[in-house]
Amino acid sequence: MADFVKVATVDEIPEGTFKAFKMKHHQFIIAHITDGFFAVADECSHDAAPISEGELYGDEIVCPRHGARFDLTDGAVKSPPAITPIDTYEVKVVGRDVLVLLD
Predict the structure, then answer these.
(1) Total count of domains within the chain
(2) How far is CA 57 from CA 22, 32, 78, 83, 95, in A?
């Protein structure tokens, strides 16, 4: 059964930053961008590099190894060498708590 799990407070992830998490069997990042909070898998679909070691540019995360770019809002590839989107997780904010849907 999937449940929303508290992973942080809004103050822990200021706008323009992200934070990596490992919970249950999931590794993901939560990014706080202009449009809100978004979570994606912490793994580049090109070579499995941890994207948490990369850089945030607007609503995109850049893989540190080969520069693949992914849209944080939907996991879509924005720049090669990756060709496959990365997984996304549903995020909601309740009060000051940031929650992620994990199965």
Answers:
(1) 1
(2) 23, 11, 12, 19, 27
